Amino acid sequence: MKIAILGAGVAGLTAATLLSRAGRDITLYDQFIAPAPVGSGLVVQPVGLKVLREIGAADLALTYGAPGYRMEGFEVGRGRKILNVSYGPDGGANFGLGIHRASLFDTLLKTAQSHGVQIISSHCVTGTSFENGKRHVMFEAQPPSAPYDLVIDTLGAGSPLSPLRAKPLEYGAIWGTVDWPTSSVQKYDQLSQRYNRARNMIGILPIGTLPNDPIRKATIFWSLPVADYQTWRDAPLESWKADAVQLWPEMEPFLAQIDQHDDMTMARYSHGTLRKPYGDGIVHIGDAAHRASPQLGQGANMALLDAYALATCLDRFDLQPALAAYTKSRRLHVESYQMMSKLFTPMYQSNSQVLPFLRDWLLAPASFLPPMPSILRTLVRGSLVNPHRGLD
Prior knowledge:
With 392 residues, the protein is of the alpha+beta class.
């Protein structure tokens, strides 16, 4: 079976490694001139780490990343603890790995290359065509590809191949990467957040180190309505930093490293799922197939889980039955986490006055009572429902 994988992101590189290891004829196309990641920090949850271990990438990822054992969040007015979720005992086997996309990309790229994956750069995908039971890939300013039995679309939220029309979310966030200040009182083994009702969500995520840079890093983020982004850029940077420090004084040594607006990158989010993420000789995985807000920290994990499920199904079934089995195996997990993301997001990122009140005075107190701590623990681990139903 000849397979083309489009996009060298988390899903693409993981799928390439798994399928190449199984003896498939793999070609991976990407538009980059030289391999490079896009983005800031993220969390690889325990279910994602299991996939990294399966492909032999976990050791390098752990060398880069920062294990986190809990998530804490406080309301800035009265200082009430709103979020208190533990992965398990400190130093234990269960944790979320905070890591920069550059470090995760380096990990997955080296793993794919060690399995002989052929990566063709400078190829911007514009479409595909299906003829005589085979699919060709079309490129900008390049001739079409040879015929493939299967094309795997991992081109993300901007995929020109995916029929998904996701609903844009009102709120996004600006993200930046800074050195971890030696003066900081924040803990390096947890995600820390502060909430100003639901209008501002501020966070500090330890992410370990970058390739060729041994200094420990952190990702900082600030939720922002998408419509307000240009207003934020037009305003003096120091005004925003002063507002943030007023809400959370411990942010000052982190924000002191932000010298210009371009040090922060705007991330926009959307919500939607392809009910049938495949067709004749093509399948969409990762953000090309389903999208949600990052509220539950599952984005990269969904990509890793998709790649593993698809590779497993292609090992067990003929092509079209394999694509149907892949879809069935991932449906409950994807839809469950999307539903919960859709439920939780407006409590932390919206203009509502009612939802943060319910969050602070009803849901937060209830979350500290059994059995809610154990439910939240499995939720953040990514294992509230079986991520690979029927494949175990």
